[in-house]
Specification:
Elements lengths: L2 E6 L1 H4 L8 E4 L7 H11 L3 E7 H6 L1 H6 L7 E5 L8 H14 L8
Parallel strand pairs: 1-2, 1-3, 3-4
């Protein structure tokens, strides 16, 4: 059975444990190497959905892009404690454009 994980700084993801999701806290202060290894471990494991804080997703754009063409896992950016940066919306827009061929959601 597939699982769901949440990757990000501890303050942003701690509450997801109460929902039964696997939390994977990583430090945002490093260069992203530890977080990149953890993302790879989750993506190549039994995880179908990986939520990742927008601040961390910004650091791991290359790694996330690598999994965009795969069926699983779905890597979904979520706002962290610092707020919404808009990265999640941009990634959803890009995914819709890739699937449909045009921007049917935002039309800007």
């Amino acid at each position: 059975m597939y699982k769901i994980a949440v990757l990000g700084d501890r303050d942003s993801i701690y509450g997801f444990a109460a929902l039964g999701l696997d939390i994977c806290p990583v430090a945002l202060s490093d260069d992203g190497a530890e977080a990149g290894r953890k993302l790879k471990e989750l993506a190549e494991g039994d995880y179908a959905v990986i939520y990742i804080t927008e601040a961390l997703a910004e650091k791991l754009k290359g790694e996330i892009h690598r999994y965009r063409s795969e069926k699983l896992p779905a890597i979904i950016p979520i706002p962290g404690v610092s707020g919404n940066t808009g990265l999640g919306i941009k990634m959803v827009k890009k995914s819709v454009e890739q699937a449909v061929g045009s921007d049917i959601l935002f039309r800007d």
